[in-house]
């Protein structure tokens, strides 16, 4: 059985979503259920859950698509100015033109500036940034560089468990061996360096590990790495001659008090040589997560650090063959990197919207922890950031037995029941990998406030009943 | 039948894609060994030093430095180097955006800095990018996109009602009524239904199942995805893919990256770049000696060659594919770009189904379309679709998994694709304007196609087939032997040398034929017919003048 099959049981979700579609159809036809609609929190997608897009972002986008909108007084002045500026960066003043394959040059400069500011002045070179159709596409391109598809032994990529499914799947498609390392649930999903050593050693006989993939803040785990942990990872990566792939797409999703996001690049720079001038790093970010939540526009970027210049040439070729990144996604990235400033007409509304989302999501997070940890059989590690809660569910042997009888993973069985009985669609922990005999569910917490209240109400009621039924 | 189909579709790859039958990646996991051992290493960090910062910023220019690990032991080179990187990536070249374009960008910069050049502007006729050349977008399309972006505009009375109702319908099928939500990886349901209905209409009623439609990030995404699914095997069993020469370099680049064998078949320049079955047969038989040919790619209307295939030719190709058991990949992104009298676009699917069940039930076909060409020219939105016919269901499941890695195609591109296949209808408020804009764009292109071939054919030493369709002319140019020699000395292809000189002297940016492939000893360039008419005229007369001068200089 392959590592993927064993650890990331992704087909489970297909069954669940198909089931959800059937239930939605039944509801449409007026079939009586204890609920009127299905709450689908299985995706990390705030818009799908009813969170409103940021007005400024959508106004600029609309004006770029249809510049005639700038003639009237329907849009604030700074929106028009921004749209005009963006269009002047497009060939023929149209978002319908191809752009350079790394992205529109001026937008890349904005992103570099954003990174520099984020990292307290650590310089960012625009030549090292590539915008692409979402961060996962960039990640796949970097893996394509690193994974020797014809090599023997095969290339290995270290991937955390639990982990969202896309990265291991990309690695597997390219012929790499996925080498899992387990995050430490009891300690708030910390990444323990001893575990990295163990994982690497276990891989030695099977493959040649070339890269370490980390995701911080975590998906599905919602943890945030400390600087100390990151320094250890960096030392490990340097010592073991690996390439560091740092997925930092949730960097704006930091809600817990007294926590901050620190980028790997920043820590690397703080550590000084030999780390800062040697360690090869690719850091990924995107317009899909955080306050923008513009998943559908497909805008992500990768920043590369310390790449060997001759290899850089081929990275360029590789990105070239996949064509230019979607322009709407590039615009979203620009607006993320350079939001309205104090004094500009859109600033008050923009900050209000951000503040509202931020306090809503912080509130959601606290409610989730509180409500779930009060329920017998639930155990939720502190959520520090990211888009998800990933609580552990303690299932009785009776429930596990029942799941076996119907041919399901125990947590999938729990999810199916939750969907059927309470109209809540979450994803089972077995999709992300977990230790044997331990079960989880994952759900998105970036919802409007009332959705979260309804969700927790339904979940609590269901859980109590489930525990009773299978006690 | 179905087993045969899987067989044709890369069993090796299938095994690799399928989790249940992984290819030996049975890495045992010892569980439960990440206990909470306290970390006792000192974690004090040095302050941010200027050196550290310089190290981070100078990565591009500096040579890789050999460094010493903390314990002062082993020197450490780069992990990712030319020697350690995936070797197949090294095989990739991409002509359309090669050195000529880079030089053109430099020249533009120099001009803007006030440097003296023998020209005032750089004219780019190297890439099929209509809007960059001043083609105006279709108003209706952009109105709907604006409405979908900023739904408050739905209350705005200046937008036509049909644009609003179209936007409402699309938003209804987006998660949370937002273009910012992920969609299914295969694309939004209602868009796929509209695409299916469009194909049925286009093909005179031949049925189309929305489940066979995959929305893509431009057509190239679909093409590369299909190739990934097809390529497998080692040595003489390695997948071979037949592509036309001249070809669009996306194909050669993708095949190189996948390590597949590229099988060239030559189009017949003397017969207006037509496709001869005997040539297909020759190429196939040659290739069978060293690889396993599985797929045949056709671009119709042609890029870079601008020919439109006859119905008869398509029928022959289908028969050939059926006989030789090849998977057909029909790149039909220029389906609305047909200019020459007596030429019509025939889709492979339509012809396939008109040939009867013997073919329509068996021949596997993928057809590609996009929002980037035709009268739309919306390259930047990255919209496209592919239709997959007669693919085995198990393989289709693998395809679905493969596309899921990219999560979903960009939603604005999906929205636009929907509008392209479901434009305003007679009687709707936007219909007249839409029709006017569409017609004027297409007829301007037709005129420019004609103008291009006429002018080029008046130049001694240049001969040009009619531009029947698509957006390009691919004229043959005579390059004097002396120039060929000089180019060879410089390590350049002769037509690269020619195009570079043309760029330096006139500011005109074209792509040398060698980037597309051509018969040995012949030289070409590809130019688009997209510049506005007055610019195109200037361009053509400058090319004429340059060619004359160049020929004299080297004769």
Can you describe this structure in just a few lines?
The complex is a heterodimer of chains A (471) and B (555). In chain A, 44% of the residues lie in helices and 13% in strands.
Account of the protein in words:
The complex is a heterodimer of chains A (471) and B (555). Chain A has 16 helices and 14 strands. Chain A is an alpha/beta fold. By secondary structure, chain B is an alpha/beta fold. Chain B is built from 19 helices and 16 strands. At the A-B interface, helix 1, helix 3, helix 6, helix 7 and strand 4 of A face helix 3, strand 1, helix 5, helix 8 and helix 9 of B.
Number of helices of chain A: 16
Tell me the β content of chain B: 5-15%
Shape of chain A: globular
Q: Structural class per helix/strand content of chain A?
A: alpha/beta
Query: N- to C-terminal separation of chain A?
Result: 33 Å
User: From the alpha-carbon coordinates, what is the Rg of chain A to the nearest angstrom?
Assistant: 23 Å
Assembly annotation: heterodimer
Task: For the largest sheet of chain A, list the strands in their spatial order.
Answer: 2-8-7-6-5-3-4
* Estimated helix fraction of chain B: 40-55%
Global structural class of chain B: alpha/beta
Strand order of the largest sheet of chain B: 4-10-9-8-7-5-6
Instruction: List segments of chain B where confidence is low: pLDDT < 50 over at least 5 consecutive residues.
Output: 1-75
Low-confidence stretches of chain A: 1-5
Mean pLDDT of chain A: 92
Please write the string of helix (H) and strand (E) elements of chain A.
Answer: HHEHHHEHEHEHEHEHEEHHHEEEHHEEEH
From the spread of the alpha carbons, the general shape of chain B counts as globular
> What is the radius of gyration of chain B computed over CA atoms, rounded to a whole number of angstroms?
26 Å
Note the beta-strand portion of chain A. Answer: 5-15%
